[in-house]
Structure to design on (418 residues):
């Protein structure tokens, strides 16, 4: 065979090279003949290397999937132009890693790690996703490969690593949460076993509804008492948290009572049936349940956002408290109508500012309406639902983080004179 790279020898007897050549000659005209040879673990390193560098994509894919392919051949296939070839290699390479350094030479180990690193940088999401799924639970892969995959912009790649990899530290996870990753990524972190208290704190601070729900149903997630209180403070307006809260095992009696005051009758009934309640708490919940069942059904809310704002203005209630409560309740149209009224703008302009998905214009608008930075923070969080990394926090806990000149500039962009 021509143009053969020097390859390592395993010391195991393989298919006789003459027999291999005969197979190629005899089956050259037979569909799948070379591919069948490429799948044989006894084909020998020379034959497999030749097929990897000269054969059609289907045959190269068979070499990539063959556990007997030499490390140098695997490394070449990591740069193959065909995605299917690289995908087969990604599915195989992780299974070769455990214990490799003990049973193979340093050269083979280095080549295999280099192949792994190359696949982690692959341009195809599919290849990276296959690799991430295969190595998600391994402790014997390089940490920088794990971090690369954990911070991949595609959640199908990052999520398996974030949920399962034992190589990620709390600091790694907290940094990833702070970057404001997409919902699936935060939910994956919330589903880890275990989740430490500092990581739980940051997940709750992200205010991601799905991630917090996943955290609550995870029995291996440790949640501090004050963090649970923060969840309960928000839970009244977030129905998706009610059942996970009711099913949470490590609840204090105070937390159980608070949950009982938030949830509907069906969940309250389930909460009252817990077998870890004190007599006083059970009596309290049953009393709450009887009162809830006796309540008449609520009539549909037929008051429009504009009417709510008009009524608040007439009653001198159109202020920061009103807008903050509407924002926290997720009442987008009420917030829009209130800001338009307070800033003397048409609602379309306010909608354009919110639709810009940028913190600075909305912070500037809230400043223009003479409301507090606290209101601006609530709008960014509950109405615009900005990722954590994009939220503009208050300066010193209370002040606006932009200068007046900066805020006037942002308002002027929307043709607002301030």
């Amino acid at each position: 065979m021509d143009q053969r790279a020097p390859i390592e020898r395993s010391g195991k007897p393989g298919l006789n090279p003459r027999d291999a050549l005969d197979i190629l000659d005899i089956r050259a005209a037979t569909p799948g003949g070379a591919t069948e040879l490429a799948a044989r673990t006894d084909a020998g390193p020379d034959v497999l290397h030749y097929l990897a560098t000269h054969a059609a994509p289907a045959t190269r894919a068979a070499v990539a999937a063959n556990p007997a392919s030499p490390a140098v051949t695997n490394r070449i296939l990591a740069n193959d132009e065909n995605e299917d070839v690289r995908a087969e290699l990604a599915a195989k390479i992780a299974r070769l890693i455990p214990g490799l350094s003990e049973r193979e030479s340093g050269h083979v180990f280095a080549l295999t790690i280099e192949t792994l690193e190359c696949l982690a940088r692959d341009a195809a999401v599919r290849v990276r996703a296959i690799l991430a799924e295969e190595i998600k639970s391994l402790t014997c892969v390089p940490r920088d490969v794990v971090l690369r995959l954990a911070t991949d912009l595609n959640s199908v790649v990052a999520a398996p690593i974030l949920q399962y990899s034992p190589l990620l530290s709390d600091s790694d996870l907290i940094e990833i949460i702070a970057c404001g990753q997409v919902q699936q990524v935060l939910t994956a972190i919330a589903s880890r076993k275990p989740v430490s208290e500092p990581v739980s704190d940051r997940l709750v601070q992200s205010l991601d509804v799905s991630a917090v729900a996943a955290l609550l149903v995870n029995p291996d997630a440790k949640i501090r008492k004050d963090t649970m209180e923060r969840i309960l403070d928000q839970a009244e307006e977030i129905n998706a948290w009610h059942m996970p809260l009711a099913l949470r095992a490590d609840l204090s009696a105070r937390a159980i009572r608070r949950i009982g005051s938030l949830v509907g009758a069906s969940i309250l009934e389930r909460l009252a049936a817990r077998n870890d309640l004190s007599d006083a708490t059970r009596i309290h919940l049953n009393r709450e349940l009887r009162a809830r069942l006796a309540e008449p059904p609520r009539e549909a809310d037929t008051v429009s956002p504009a009417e709510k704002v008009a009524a608040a203005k007439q009653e001198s209630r159109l202020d920061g408290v009103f807008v903050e409560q509407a924002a926290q309740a997720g009442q987008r149209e009420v917030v829009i109508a209130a800001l338009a009224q307070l800033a003397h703008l048409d609602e379309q302009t306010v909608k354009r500012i919110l639709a810009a998905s940028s913190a600075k214009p909305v912070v500037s608008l809230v400043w223009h309406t003479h409301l507090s930075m606290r209101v601006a923070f609530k709008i960014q969080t509950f109405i615009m639902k900005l990722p954590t990394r994009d939220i503009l926090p208050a300066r010193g806990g209370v002040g606006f983080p932009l200068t007046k000149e900066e805020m006037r500039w942002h308002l002027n962009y929307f043709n607002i004179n301030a």
